[in-house]
Amino acid sequence: MTISVPPRSATALDAFSVPSRPKGGGAGIRRSAALLSAKDIAALAKAREARWRPGLSDQPLHSEIFAHADDASGAGFALALARDALKVAGGQGEDPLAEVEDRRQVLWVQDRRAIQRSGRPFRAGLPPDLRDRLIHVEAKTPEDALFALEEGVRCRDLACVIGEITGNPRALDFTASRRLSLAAEKHGVALWLVRLDAEADLSSARMRWQVEAAPSAHPRWNAEAPGVAVWKARLFRARAHAPGEWILSDDDANLHIRRSAPSNAAANAATPDIGHLVRPTVGRSLAAVARA
């Protein structure tokens, strides 16, 4: 089912209030940080070093995926992340009191340029459990797409929302991304926004990926047949996870890590180990630390 959004609907975005910065600004934050001990800082750093993996239950509700428009890697990866999160949220049959299957609808929003560059979702190519649950919205402008995305994450009758916007439109600034984050976290509806051929500008998305297509392994019984979807994914921003790169595949309707992306071992070996020179600098300037 495809729905067209009228351009005048974008004016409703102005009705969403944005919270102001707490009193005290950066000074208050620096005073709080100055009270942290070296042990507290080490504990926080260790917590942030947790590596991301499929099947985690604490996934953020607003993520961005940067990809090229000519290989459909962004839409495929967003769909794989969404299905992985929905399986975890459904308990995968572990809870006998949980619903047998989540049959809520999935909202997919595209602006006109995204449709021109990458095409619409193909119903027959979708996973069988989503073919009858997809609501497709064709928006004429990025403003209309943002309006549809915000309305979608406010609707708890939706399982999740997937969006595709091309480039870096002026409408998709930090304020607009902040509204999406607040709405998604308030109503508990996850959003995966695919940024096609876009630069990683300022955003409030809790998790940000850079994705590209990777070679698939040949099928066992027919080497000429297409293999399973494989992506080279780089997580370059996340609140609760350390950055990293992985080769991910969608095998048996599940998201798997095939291996970590190769790193430049030679460059790492040439870099001197300065760990003994590192000291906590929270609450003090680097010059003060150097004098200590």
Q: Can you offer a commentary on this structure?
A:
The chain has 8 helices and 10 strands. By secondary structure, the chain is an alpha/beta fold. Helix 4 (112-118) links the parallel strand 3 (105-111) and strand 4 (134-139). Helix 5 packs parallel to helix 6 (174-187). The longest helix is centred in the N-terminal third of the chain and has 17 residues, at 73-89.
Q: Strand pairing plus helix content: what structural class?
A: alpha/beta
* Ends apart, CA distance between termini: 66 Å
Tell me how many strands there are: 10
Spans where pLDDT lies below 50 across 5 or more residues: 8-22, 264-292
Strand order of the largest sheet: 1-4-3-5-6-2-7-8-9-10
Taken in chain order, the helices and strands follow as EHHEHEHEHEHEEEEEHH
User: How big a fraction of the residues is strand?
Assistant: 15-25%
Radius of gyration: 21 Å
Given the C-alpha coordinates, what overall shape results? globular
Sheet bearing the most strands, described?
Answer: 10 strands, mixed
Number of helices: 8
- What percent of the residues sit in helical stretches (DSSP H or I)? 25-40%
User: What is the typical, i.e. mean, pLDDT?
Assistant: 78
Any descriptors?
ten-stranded mixed beta sheet, globular, disordered C terminus, alpha/beta, 292 residues, 8 helices, 10 strands, 28% helix
Write a brief structural summary.
This protein is an alpha/beta fold and 292 residues long. The protein is built from eight helices and ten strands. It has a ten-stranded mixed β-sheet with strand order 1-4-3-5-6-2-7-8-9-10, with helices on both faces.
